[in-house]
Amino acid sequence: MHLGKQYLELASIDMKAAKLLYKNEIYNLAVYHLQQATEKTVKGACLTIPINSKGETLLKYQEITKEHDSAKLLVKACEKIQNILNSHKLLKPIASCVTPFISRIKQDLKNIYAKARQTKQQIKESLNLLNNLTEILQGVLKTNKNPEISNFFLFCFAPLATLSVVTFPHLSTTRYPDGKIKPIEYNKNMIGITQCFNDLLELLKKVHSRIFFND
Length: 215
What we know:
By secondary structure, the chain is an all-alpha fold. The protein has one domain. Helix content is 71%, strand content 0%. It has 10 helices and no strands. It has helices at 3-23, 27-48, 61-64, 70-86, 92-110, 120-141, 147-167, 183-187, 192-195, 197-214. Helix 2 runs antiparallel to helix 7 (147-167), helix 2 (27-48) packs parallel to helix 10 (197-214) and helix 7 (147-167) runs antiparallel to helix 10 (197-214). It is globular. The two termini are 12 Å apart.
């Protein structure tokens, strides 16, 4: 099986585990598997979506093996697409639209761990912003001649960027008691990501299915 597909298959397993753990009120590990599913979906997308007729993908395997921060991987992938778009005169307007999204993610990455304490309201605001960004992208990308790149930005980049920023800070705190957030805090429903878990999981499922079934 293609390596990108393998990552997507493993992401499916993580999503099932996350849902089951949440149902059984083991919230800390449910959030952990949500983060893992997000990371693997990003890696699967970067290894699956072609950027030219030669079948070259957004990122090579060597570029993703040691990186667990899916937001950083997305920035790298989008910068590559931005360079491709800039090299084509007719596609430069699309490249200029991509820039603000990359800048936003880079800014979020500078203070990524502070986002572990995001409240339910803050996460909901991020999801509302995502909806607005998607509408803008629909308008800008409808003239793009590359359907794979359009699909990546419209249905994958914005939601995966949001999910990455929300979930990555919980990679370790969900499992170990020596961090700024203790695993018990998730299980007492004191963390925003626990309260928004179902919305985040449903969003990831939609993105994952688009990538998996459009390959």
